[in-house]
Amino acid sequence: MKRLAKTVALTLLKIVVVFYTIFPFYWAIVSSFKSGAALFSVDFFPAIDLTNYRDLLTNGNFLRNILNSAIVAVSVVTLSLIFAITSAYALGKMKFRGRGIVLAGILGASMFPQIVVLSGLFGTIRWLGLYNSLGSLVLSYMIFSLPFTVWVMTSFIRQIPAELEDAARMDGCSTWAMIWQIYFPLLAPALASTGLLAFIASWNEFLFALTFTLSDTVRTVPVGLALISGSSRFELPFGTIMAASVIVTVPLILLVLIFQRRIVSGLTAGAVK
Amino acid sequence: MMAETAPQSSWVKRIEPWLLLAPMLIVLATVTAWPLARTAYLSFMHASLDDGDLPRFIGFGNYLALMKDGDWWHAVRNTAFFAVISVTLETLAGVAIALLIDSQIKGRGALRAVMLIPWAIPTVVSAQMWQWMLHDQYGVVNALLIKLGFISHGIAWTAGAGTAMAAIIAVDVWQTTPFMVLLILAGLQIIPRDLYEAAKVDGAPGWAQFFYITLPLLWPTLAVAILFRLLDAVRMFDLAYVLSSKSRETATISIYARQQLVDFQDVGYGSAVAMLVFLMISLVAAVYIQVTKIRLISE
Q1: Residue of A29, A72, A116 best to disrupt the B interface, most CBs of B under 10 A
Q2: Which of A45, A253, B35, B139 could disulfide-link A121, Cβ–Cβ 3.0 to 4.6 Å?
């Protein structure tokens, strides 16, 4: 009897936690299907009205923002992973003086508050002619993407046993070939999870995107979303904002759910230990 | 022949790791060390794009002005309040939810999947979602509270002096507690189950098992998770920017710094703000690592 009561209480608690976690997103979906006056009534199961979605998709800026975010995130992930593999090999598999200092530097960089470099980086970006272009974001996102990918890949590469490398060395394999022909395929799953996390971080970044871009055509999704406003001062744009929120979030949630095991292992490799 | 290749190969061996690291180090220096040095340099200058004067060296002038700047100290207090309260709530809720999920095998996978949803949602999106839920006239939160009889008319949560910060903390707790839960769940997995079996045999009650087994063994994981959350919280920008714009009541140090740099075009003063932010965050991290004695680099 006491056991049953405990099970019921725990189950109820779990339901509360699930409700609290999911409800805000559910409410965003529900609101995205309401337009006009329907938006102002609290209705949990409304009729599906796609006006907001149609408005968004016919408005060129929103699609352009999504494309921009995708270009930036894919470039950031590709570049960071290439740099991270060679760096992780050096830091995880080679013994050399200065290794500890480099590791400490990377750890320090991962704690770096972005606001600190804003004014300095602004000068660099101007000087490189990257202001108000997607290039400014690809460069500036390296500040969080590189330390993270290098750190996590280093901890993954360390787990690979040394026998493989010894055997390859016997056969006269060079370091470069070792990295790309032996370690690269072995690291593929780790690269996928690390890349996905770096992708999400770039997709969501706001401060640099708000500061280094100016025109609608180079804005990314978070900035576009934060700056959406109604066509008049009295029109509440929340229906459109919720539709936009759903469009940019659903793919992320699907990716995360499909790769959930990898993501958890990537997160813990970065933070635990 | 051996004698000939030996010195060369040892030379190659010494330079090789640096060749592999060079591209990464150069890019990282371009986006961290160099801009940091530039920010430090600018912080000693009077450099305002507003008045058209040429930049000139003014020593610690910007820093001295900052010491007497009420808005800056207000932003410092806001940030400290936000960081301490939200990280504390996230840690307590994170441990509780992780223990709940870990308590039974049934539904563990599904609950963990649910936890990933708020974490995957971009911060700007969660801010907009909550802004709509907390809307004074049409928000679902006010509608429910009125229906339940707690309040008689809608509250402007994100605009009110006392409630704006509470709203920001609530959104942050909703969004980042799942991250804590995932990390704590991973930490719980490392604890050997037979320790609990032994405790049960000895008749140790549940709370004793928690304080003498779970907490000490979870601590290394928890300490690192708290550090990451704390560093994230002190640099918070997007939530406050979207939820309550640039209101003084909720302005964080990041909001204040950007306001000086971008909105007021005061590059010198803004850089001094940024340098103080850097010093404060470094200090928080250093003290935290010293006090908790966590080891972030293995070997």
Answers
A1: A116
A2: B35
- Across the range A192-219, mean pLDDT stands at 92
Count of domains in chain A? Answer: 2
Co-location of A22 and A118 in the same domain? no
Which pLDDT band holds residue A271 (cuts at 50, 70, 90)? Answer: low
| Measured CA angle at B112 (ends B111, B118), to 5 deg | 95
B238 and A264 within 8 Å at the Cβ level: the answer is no
Query: Which amino acid is located at B292 in the chain?
Result: T
The distance of B161 to chain A (nearest Cα, Å) reads: 22
Average pLDDT, chain A: 88
Strand partners, B56: B46
pLDDT at A148: 93
Q: Which of residues 51-70 of A touch B (CB under 8 A)?
A: none
Q: For residue A27, report the phi and psi dihedrals to the nearest 5 degrees.
A: -65, -35
For the segment B66-74, the average pLDDT, to the nearest whole number, is 94
Domain B38-292, architecture per CATH: Orthogonal Bundle (1.10)
E strand or H helix at B262:
none
Question: Is the CB of A263 inside 8 Å of chain B's CB atoms?
Answer: yes
Co-location of A23 and A110 in the same domain: no
A28 plus A124 within the same structural domain: no
pLDDT given for residue B19 in this prediction: 94
Q: Give me the residue spans of the domains in chain B.
A: 38-292
d(CA A202, CA A73): 5
CB of A12 less than 8 A from some CB of B:
no
CA distance A114 to A112: 6
CA distance B197 to chain A (A): 18
Selecting from B38, B125, B140 the residue whose C-beta is nearest the C-beta of A248 gives B125
Give the chain A residue nearest B93 (alpha carbons): A17
Does residue A38 lie in a domain region? no
Q: How far apart are CA B45 and CA B100, in angstroms?
A: 55
**pLDDT over 80 at A176, yes or no:** yes
- Scanning B32-69, the segments in alpha helix (DSSP H) are 33-42, 61-67
- To probe the interface with B, which of A4, A15, A65, A119 has the most B CB atoms within 10 Å? A119
Question: Is A119 close to B42, i.e. CB distance below 8 A?
Answer: yes
B111-147 confidence digits (pLDDT tens): 888 888 998 899 999 999 999 999 888 888 988 888 8
Q: Indicate if A28 and A55 belong to the same structural domain.
A: no
Answer whether residue A43 is part of any domain: no
> Does A100 lie in the same domain as A216?
yes
Is the predicted pLDDT of residue B106 greater than 70, yes or no? yes
Distances (CA, A) of A133 to A114, A210, B131: 19, 12, 30
Residue with the bigger pLDDT between B136 and A134: it is A134
